[in-house]
Amino acid sequence: MDLMDDTLVPEHARDIKQEAREFAEEHIEPNAEEYHRSGEYPWEILEAGMDANLIAQDISEEYGGRGLDLPQVLAIAEEFYRADAGIALTLQLASFGAGIMEEHGTEEQCEEYLRPVAENDQITGLAVSEPETGSDLAGMTTSAEKDGDEWVLNGEKYWVGNGVEADWVTLYAKTGDDPDNRYGNYSMFIVPTDTEGYEAEHIPEKMGMRASKQAHIVLDDARIPEENLIGVEGGGFYMLADFFNHGRIVVGGHGLGLAAAAIEEAWEFAHGRNAFGRTINEFQSVQHILADMRLEFESARALNWRAAEKVENNDHGGFWASMAKVKSTEVANDCAERGMQLHGGRSVLLENKISRVYRDVRIPVIYEGANEIQRNLIYRQAPN
Ligand SMILES: Cc1cc2nc3c(=O)[nH]c(=O)nc-3n(C[C@H](O)[C@H](O)[C@H](O)COP(=O)(O)OP(=O)(O)OC[C@H]3O[C@@H](n4cnc5c(N)ncnc54)[C@H](O)[C@@H]3O)c2cc1C
């Protein structure tokens, strides 16, 4: 069964999709269970991905990457997440947030910070969420105050992928206090993780995507040079909103990969498990469950790829990106839930992939903006 054939994928993204599939089969899938159990950071697989030229390659050729575009990154996401979401998240996070610098940073910043990430000498991360605030981007309290030719950072960030492992992070902080311009109060900064006053530790163990690591960062009078501001002061929220339009298409791909994995597992199990003298796929109610899974998966995937094209063409990108994210990640939840039920008691055995998928699907409905927030955006940004 090949649920993720490439007929929906634009021609220029098919080769990279094939590369990602072969890499996932060789390096991700066979190691997934072990990393899920240990919860360790999959350095070896990350390095293999770097050798295969599949990590951080969304960065342009000008700065040493392959210049992969949105459909190409989506194609990789589908394949990696189908194999294992925890490892996939680590592989895709190595350049998370770097697109903001590429879009808004100076040439000097890109040379100094972006190039080493594209060349796989460094990894990075995006620090937005805080312990007390995740959804309300205009409610974040981490501050950056100007002091001479430096910015002084104070506050806390939470959930930051690679916050411990990264060489530097793109950090979102409050630089203004205008109550009439809530969204104009934030800016983006480059923060090297060896800055004095930057302390990061891993958050407690997670139930899903255990092969990815997130950090709790404490900034205590952390000083960075004034030239570490990205773009214009006060532009942080808008940079982030634009960046997330791309990211949410890719998170839709996380959902699609997970949904495909759930369907594949359920299909195979249902065709091999016997009950009442026949394999369970012979029961019509089971056939309907499998049919519904396929129906929902194909609907989500068609929407997700259509939305990718809309975002690429700047055609109501925010609306389409949120729709894709919600639909694909929720279909993944539905498929995992049904896949579990079809597995009966065996669903809860750790050695069965469906149990891992069931845990992992809980995460993409939350990250990159919880689906409730996406529904707010869909309504607000709907073309009419
Ligand atoms: C594994 C993982 C990796 C992550 N990686 C990163 C990362 O690399 N960098 C980073 O910055 N962040 C990261 N995040 C954080 C993620 O983006 C936030 O968890 C998410 O935005 C939700 O924020 P919150 O957890 O604070 O939930 P809250 O904002 O507290 O929301 C709690 C609940 O209230 C609902 N809610 C809140 N406001 C509204 C509203 N206006 N209308 C309706 N419902 C509402 C939410 O939908 C949710 O159901 C990661 C999270 C996870 C789980």
TrEMBL record:
Record domain Acyl-CoA dehydrogenase/oxidase N-terminal: where: 11-120
Name of the featured protein: Acyl-CoA dehydrogenase
Keyword RNA-binding among UniProt keywords: no
Source taxon at top rank: Archaea
GO terms, molecular function: acyl-CoA dehydrogenase activity; flavin adenine dinucleotide binding
SUPFAM superfamilies: Acyl-CoA dehydrogenase C-terminal domain-like, Acyl-CoA dehydrogenase NM domain-like
Domain Acyl-CoA dehydrogenase/oxidase C-terminal, chain residue ranges per copy: 234-381
InterPro entries assigned to the protein according to its UniProt record, in alphabetical order: Acyl-CoA_Oxase/DH_mid-dom, Acyl-CoA_Oxase/DH_mid-dom_sf, AcylCo_DH-like_C, AcylCo_DH/oxidase_C, AcylCoA_DH/ox_N, AcylCoA_DH/ox_N_sf, AcylCoA_DH/oxidase_NM_dom_sf
The keyword 4Fe-4S is assigned to this record: no
Residues annotated as domain Acyl-CoA oxidase/dehydrogenase middle: 126-221
Family named by the database record: Belongs to the acyl-CoA dehydrogenase family.
Cofactor: FAD
Gene3D superfamilies attached to this UniProt entry: Acyl-CoA dehydrogenase/oxidase, N-terminal domain, Butyryl-CoA Dehydrogenase, subunit A, domain 2, Butyryl-CoA Dehydrogenase, subunit A, domain 3
Keywords: FAD, Flavoprotein, Oxidoreductase
Pfam families, per the entry: Acyl-CoA_dh_1 (PF00441), Acyl-CoA_dh_M (PF02770), Acyl-CoA_dh_N (PF02771)
